[in-house]
């Protein structure tokens, strides 16, 4: 049972800047001129497009089908016409393109009919399938499909609801909890039964008293074991593993999931989406997103997935000197890739930057081994050692020092007095290691293919030899037979014995032939199957070698021979 | 395109170093009170030498001179050298020591952050080996006349001066078969340490607490250092109080308190993991005590620090703290 709170080491307390956007109610963003709905909603999978340009779609109509286990459906966020399906830069640090369905809204915002009723009483499988078909994914950022995350439905004791929202500037979950606590908790209760948990624990950072009060009130009205817990506002308390640690004392190692330890964690926004999907039959076509930073009117809007971020930001009135746009918070977010990108399910915050608000980092200095980074690291790493190994491209050592336990929270870089962009070094190392592993896997596969081919060729040769031998034996037998026939005895009786002898002889001959073949292969494998030109080269080389005039040239040519076909 | 995090704490190496300098001020003030303003002259000389040497090497190495010189790390090294050397040391020795510390010990190894040895301590060791007599002339407490100080610093004769540190006096006395008690009645000694030095020690403690509060150092190093020093001194003292001074004397004498808060805490050349810090500081204390009592030099801290510097990579490697989620594995 939970007894009080636990703590994780490290963490930092950056200026929160939450008041700027937290005080006004969620507004609904107006319909943009065009929506670019990404078919890829997470890093993992892409939905299969089922609409064509020119097609009319209704709000909530499916436009992308899930086509593998990890995939979820994608829906039209409003009614309108599909005017294209194109590659478009997506809301991801990589700046990579993804296929988007471009919809021109007709302004009617007409829902698809009929909409299913309340599924909250339906069997578990049906509910899970429905979540997938509604495109429900985690809204905390990682956009992992919720129907997968609820798992087997056994072995989970505690459902943790993540309302920590520890990144500076972001307030979408705060507003959602203040305004829609009932729906969030109703969704949490549904999730609780889906994961088979006994109880619900909601973690909210203690700098959101209104949200805590609203959630407590909503919990009081429900007949379920729900505990609303205020947790200390230390970034990254909202990291899944950190939150689980604070609330339950369990430390989930890298590579393990909460489910392995009887805890499963969902974002409050996800719980809200689950409620909308299961009780109201609504697919996930919008989300609350914070618009803040260097803007005239910061706040939160409920915006359709696929709305161009620039259109959204216009709502808040970005100031003249805005130089960049951040997606996500300043600790873990990323700069909007070149060009405009559409709002994705995992986009929780848009921050307009100005040089005054987010000054460029001072130049990097040498690490003075002050250890400030290690004291700030919530993963209990020694960031300066990782930095050192990464810089020296000593990736093996970096891995030994648990590089892959780094959650890239940025605490270390935040505190470093030498202004070292530590996280960049880790990203570099990680990508190098991945690249090397990919290369190695590719090389392994190539070697396997090569060996397999060699083996196949030898087998084919062997089989051919055996066939030949068998044929030779058969011919011999036939000859013997005709010889016997020539001696006048056409009867069947005398045939049996010589035939048996012949068969034996043939077998011996075949075996001898095989042995010869094998010997030939062993000895002259390199010079099999040569083209005439190569054979000539080999001969020339051989001649040279025999003449001992040029000993070096000889080995070069035949070496390439096996690759010829 | 920059990547996260986009915000950072307004912290800088310069601030860290400035905090260290500020933390040294109480001790410097007490120093002036007890031993006269000569120390200020030394601090100035060492600072100038350090900054000039630093700027020169940075220029040679093609580094941005302005950025690195203003990080104040060279000044900290200069101050530590001035504070560990006798106040009446000839200026050229001080300058030579500082330049050696900056150029050879720090920059030949790659500059700030990459030097395996504590520059101030390395300079101290080099000088005490090279100029043992100059390095062992200390002005007695109350010897506060700036004119005499300057005269000696800038080339005056050393003959006029008598003086040894209490540790030195104790050593010499004990070698001459006196007991701790009889030696300690001598005039170099005060209440529980060297006369005058006790006050300065208080200054170092205040500065250390300030740095702890500012989170420039952690508790591990000073605590382990002082506790280890007290324990080993107590063991020998318990064994033979006539031949070994009390733990309190060892804590209050020589460079113990300066070392506890300002020398073993040098992050660059010291251990960095929490357990590693405990081991490192304990090692320095034990070695320093042994050298003080059985070695050839009156205060062994500088040698002890260098010896332990050598062990730092090993200590750090063997004391990596468990990572989140890997505890108990
Ligand atoms: S905070 Fe920066 S300077 Fe300090 S140890 Fe870490 S990386 Fe080095
Ligand atoms: S980014 Fe990685 S190394 Fe840095 S504090 Fe976070 S977890 Fe630790």
UniProtKB/TrEMBL annotation, chain A:
Binds 2 [4Fe-4S] clusters per subunit. Its EC number is 7.-.-.-. It comes from the Bacteria. Coiled coil: none annotated. Its cofactor is [4Fe-4S] cluster. Keywords: 4Fe-4S, Cell inner membrane, Cell membrane, Electron transport, Iron, Iron-sulfur, Membrane, Metal-binding, Repeat, Translocase, Transport. The keyword Iron applies. [4Fe-4S] cluster 1 binds at residues 367, 370, 373, 416. It is an enzyme of class 7 (translocase). Residues 358-387, 397-425 form the 4Fe-4S ferredoxin-type domain. It is found in: Cell inner membrane. Part of a membrane-bound complex that couples electron transfer with translocation of ions across the membrane. PANTHER family: ION-TRANSLOCATING OXIDOREDUCTASE COMPLEX SUBUNIT C (PTHR43034:SF2). The complex is composed of six subunits: RnfA, RnfB, RnfC, RnfD, RnfE and RnfG. This is Ion-translocating oxidoreductase complex subunit C. It comes from Nitrogeniibacter mangrovi. The gene is rsxC.
From TrEMBL, chain B:
The chain crosses the membrane at residues 12-33, 39-60, 196-213, 220-239, 245-264, 276-294, 300-317. GO terms for biological process: electron transport chain; transmembrane transport. One of its GO terms (cellular component) is plasma membrane. Its EC number is 7.-.-.-. Keywords: Cell inner membrane, Cell membrane, Electron transport, Flavoprotein, FMN, Membrane, Phosphoprotein, Translocase, Transmembrane, Transmembrane helix, Transport. The modification FMN phosphoryl threonine is found at residue 165. It comes from the Bacteria. Its main location: membrane. It is an enzyme of class 7 (translocase). Its cofactor is FMN. It is found in: Cell inner membrane. It is a multi-pass membrane protein. Part of a membrane-bound complex that couples electron transfer with translocation of ions across the membrane. Belongs to the NqrB/RnfD family. The complex is composed of six subunits: RnfA, RnfB, RnfC, RnfD, RnfE and RnfG. This is Ion-translocating oxidoreductase complex subunit D. The gene is rnfD.
């Amino acid at each position: 049972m939970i007894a009080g709170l636990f703590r994780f080491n490290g963490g930092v307390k950056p200026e929160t800047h939450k008041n700027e956007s937290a005080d006004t109610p969620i507004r609904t963003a107006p319909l943009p001129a065009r929506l670019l709905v990404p078919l890829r909603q997470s890093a993992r999978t892409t939905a299969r497009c089922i609409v064509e340009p020119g097609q009319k779609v209704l709000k909530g109509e499916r436009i992308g089908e899930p086509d593998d286990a990890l995939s979820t459906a994608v829906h039209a966020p409003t009614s309108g016409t599909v005017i294209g399906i194109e590659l478009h830069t997506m809301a991801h640090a990589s700046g990579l393109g993804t296929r988007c369905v471009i919809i021109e809204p007709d302004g009617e915002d007409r829902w698809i009919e009929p909409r299913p009723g309340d599924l909250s009483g339906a069997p578990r499988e049906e509910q899970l399938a429905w979540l997938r078909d509604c495109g429900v994914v985690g809204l905390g950022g990682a956009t992992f499909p919720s129907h997968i995350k609820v798992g087997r439905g056994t072995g989970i004791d505690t459902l943790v609801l993540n309302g920590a929202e520890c990144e500076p500037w972001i307030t979408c979950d705060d507003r959602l909890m203040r305004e829609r606590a009932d729906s969030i908790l109703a969704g949490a209760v549904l999730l609780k039964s889906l994961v088979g948990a006994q109880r619900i624990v909601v973690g909210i950072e203690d700098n959101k008293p209104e949200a805590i009060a609203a959630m407590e009130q909503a919990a009081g009205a429900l007949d379920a074991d729900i505990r609303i817990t205020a947790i200390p506002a230390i970034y990254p308390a909202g990291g899944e593993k950190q939150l689980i640690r604070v609330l339950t004392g369990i430390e989930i190692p890298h590579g393990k999931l909460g489910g392995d330890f009887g805890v499963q964690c969902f974002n409050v926004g996800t719980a809200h989406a689950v409620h909308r999907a299961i009780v109201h039959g609504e697919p996930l076509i919008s989300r609350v997103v914070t618009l803040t930073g260097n803007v005239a009117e910061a706040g939160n809007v409920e915006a359709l997935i696929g709305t161009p971020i620039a259109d959204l930001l216009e709502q808040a009135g970005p100031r003249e000197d805005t130089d960049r746009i951040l997606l996500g918070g300043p600790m873990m977010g990323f700069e909007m890739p070149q060009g405009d990108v559409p709002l994705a399910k995992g986009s929780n915050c848009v921050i307009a930057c100005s040089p005054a608000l987010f000054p460029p980092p001072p130049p990097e200095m040498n690490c003075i081994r002050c250890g400030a980074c290690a004291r700030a690291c919530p993963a209990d790493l020694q960031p300066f050692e990782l930095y050192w190994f990464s810089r020296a491209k000593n990736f093996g050592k970096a891995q030994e020092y648990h590089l892959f336990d780094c959650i890239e929270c940025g605490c270390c870089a935040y505190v470093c007095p030498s202004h070292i962009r530590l996280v960049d070094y880790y990203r570099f190392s990680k990508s190098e290691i991945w690249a090397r592993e990919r290369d190695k896997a590719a090389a392994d596969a190539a070697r396997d293919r090569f060996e397999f081919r060699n083996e196949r060729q030898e087998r084919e040769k062997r089989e051919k030899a055996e066939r030949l031998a068998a044929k030779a034996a058969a011919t011999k037998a036939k000859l013997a037979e005709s010889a016997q026939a020539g001696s006048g005895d056409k009867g069947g009786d005398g045939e049996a014995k010589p035939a048996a002898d012949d068969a034996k002889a043939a077998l011996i001959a075949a075996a001898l032939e095989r042995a010869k073949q094998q010997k030939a292969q062993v000895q002259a494998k390199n010079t099999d199957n040569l083209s005439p030109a190569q054979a000539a080269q080999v001969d020339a080389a051989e001649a040279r070698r025999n003449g001992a005039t040029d000993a070096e040239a000889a080995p070069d040519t035949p070496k390439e021979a096996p690759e010829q076909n | 395109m920059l990547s996260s995090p986009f915000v950072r704490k307004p912290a800088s190496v310069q601030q860290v170093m400035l905090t260290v300098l500020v933390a040294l001020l109480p001790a410097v003030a007490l120093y002036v009170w007890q031993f006269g303003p000569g120390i200020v002259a030394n601090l100035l000389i060492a600072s100038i030498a350090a900054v000039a040497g630093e700027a020169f090497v940075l220029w040679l190495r093609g580094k941005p001179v302005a950025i690195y010189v203003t990080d104040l790390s060279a000044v900290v090294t200069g101050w530590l050298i001035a504070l560990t050397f006798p106040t009446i040391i000839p200026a050229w020795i001080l300058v030579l020591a500082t330049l050696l510390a900056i150029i050879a010990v720090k920059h030949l190894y790659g500059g700030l952050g990459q030097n395996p040895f504590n520059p101030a301590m390395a300079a101290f060791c080099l000088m005490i080996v090279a100029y043992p007599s100059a390095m062992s002339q200390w002005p007695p407490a109350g010897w506060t006349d700036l004119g005499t100080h300057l005269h000696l610093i800038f080339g005056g004769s050393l003959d006029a001066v008598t003086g040894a540190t209490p540790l030195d006096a104790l050593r010499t006395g004990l070698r001459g078969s006196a007991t701790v008690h009889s030696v300690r009645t001598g005039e170099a000694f005060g209440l529980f340490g060297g006369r005058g030095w006790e006050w300065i020690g208080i200054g170092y403690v205040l500065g250390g607490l300030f740095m702890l509060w500012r989170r420039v150092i952690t508790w591990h190093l000073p605590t382990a250092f002082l506790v280890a020093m007290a324990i080993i001194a107590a063991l020998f003292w318990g064994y033979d109080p006539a031949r070994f001074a009390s733990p309190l004397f060892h804590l209050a004498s020589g460079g113990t308190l300066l070392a506890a808060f300002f020398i073993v805490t040098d992050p660059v050349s010291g251990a960095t993991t929490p357990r590693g810090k405990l081991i490192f500081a304990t090692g320095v204390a034990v070695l320093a005590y042994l050298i003080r009592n059985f070695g050839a030099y009156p205060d062994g801290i500088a040698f002890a620090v260098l010896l332990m510097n050598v062990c730092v990579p090993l200590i750090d490697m063997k004391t990596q703290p468990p990572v989140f989620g890997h505890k108990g594995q």
